[in-house]
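Notes to self after the Tuesday call (sharing in case useful).
The group wants a holo model before anyone commits to mutagenesis around the pocket. I volunteered. Ligand is nicotinamide-adenine-dinucleotide. Logging inputs and output together so the record is complete.
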Amino acid sequence: MENPYILPEQTPCYVDGEFIYTDQYVSNTNPVNGQNLGQLCEANQALIEQAVTAARYAQNHTWGKMTSQQRCQLLHQVADKIAENEQAFIQAEMADTGKSLQQLTQIDIPRGTANFRIFADMVKSYAGESFITEQTNGDKALNYTIHKPLGVVAIISPWNLPLLLATWKIAPALACGNSVIVKPSEETSSTMYLLAQIMDEVGIPKGAFNLLLGRGEVVGDPLTRHPGIDAITFTGATKTGSQIMKNAAANVKPVSFELGGKNSAIVFADADLEKALNGVTRSSFTNCGQVCLCTEKVYVHRSIFDAFVEGLKQRAESLTIGYPTDPDVFMGPLVSKQHRDKVLSYFQLASQEGAQFITGGSIPVFNDDRDNGFFIQPTIITGLDDDARTNQEEIFGPICHLSVFDDEDEVIARVNNTRYGLAASIWTDNLTRAHRTAAQIDVGMVWVNTWFLRDLRTPFGGCKLSGIGREGGQHSLSFYSQTSNICIQIDN
Ligand code: NAD
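Result:
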């Protein structure tokens, strides 16, 4: 079965208001059946220079000079157009990622629209500070702050939630008056191309939004080294973040990093077992485990461990895997062969480390074109120490490890025994325990009796190897603008 969205044979970059075809290509593969979908035109050094120059021009002469109200009206039009063209976005995202229709219609595409709306609305009430300063001679001073754009922001985004995560940065950066240069993942650039068309149609001034396609080392690396960039915002792997930080250091540029995770769920004996089982099924296997917030380690109280193992096994085995176009399908394929090889190597490592496989551990067989795609089974393992590599390294696939725990202090220490610090979920019906435990987990986000419930006004981000800074609501506005203090002498 073919996906109905056909990529243009060559997907162009978009720089200074023009769609630009280069002579270097990266091929795009359909993860459902391994077939070629087309090619991306990869940006070269000259195009990177052109994008930086155009973005600076827009900053100094057009986009940066508009009123906040004018900019926000245009961003609402962008949101309207994404909503009007929802089907094209769904099809493009599905072609690139193989993610299920369920997820695309419920999460990815509506969130792309919502990102533009919320930041366009929030920036209007982004207030500054003011102080009256009393001087010893009786004079006073009025101190007040204003928010200005940073300038030209480089946005580097990953393949797992392509539209959602790129617009999570594009929308607030533009709302704050910056120009942006976006470098999406080379695996999943199609929805950014559709977004470029919308930016063009609604009349975002040329140079305010630029799209550079291509590989990280060829395009992302020189872009993040470029002295004409004023800030870098990145979502992706911790290792890549570390490299980008070195690039940013040379020009002392601010960075916002949303990086990898190794997230835990804790299921206390007093949890509503049904809800916890459904929640952990969702948190472990949504998007084939390819969400930075997904659970890879589950700590279950000894008294309910056996019942939990049985319930999770049943649920994992009843998840529908298949063509993402089928409305009943929960899990499509992993994004690429390379990524599936990585996840399979962790299945092998877990086995070598002595894990018992409760379910899964291999590739499903369909006896049709899907056997050339990159599908994998939802997998549950147990029996490993917390220090095993399988329990310490981010796998980013549909796999979770189940461990027994006995008491609260023990489980908190074990959950914190990781170099990552992105998210955690706690399942309990004891409210006091929920508050007490949540505050002691070293992560940026804790969910209690739910998972991935997002209010876009709340801070999002991680600690330790999981990131630097927070985005979301005021935190995004704060990163994407610079604050100037103005001090006015008032004579007595
Ligand atoms: P990745 O780091 O390989 O790639 C992310 C982006 O960086 C891509 O656009 C890529 O082309 C670019 N890139 C690669 N090398 C580069 C370089 N040297 N210089 C500049 N850019 C470069 O990550 P991925 O495999 O696309 O995404 C999966 C990772 O992202 C996982 O680790 C996941 O946890 C993380 N992630 C984190 C969050 C979060 O919010 N914390 C959200 C989603 C994904």
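Two things stood out.
Confidence is low (pLDDT under 50) at residues 1-5.
The pocket of nicotinamide-adenine-dinucleotide is lined by residues 156-160, 165, 183-186, 215-217, 220-221, 224, 235-237, 240, 243-244, 258-261, 292, 394, 396, 422, 462, 466-467 (CB under 6 Å).
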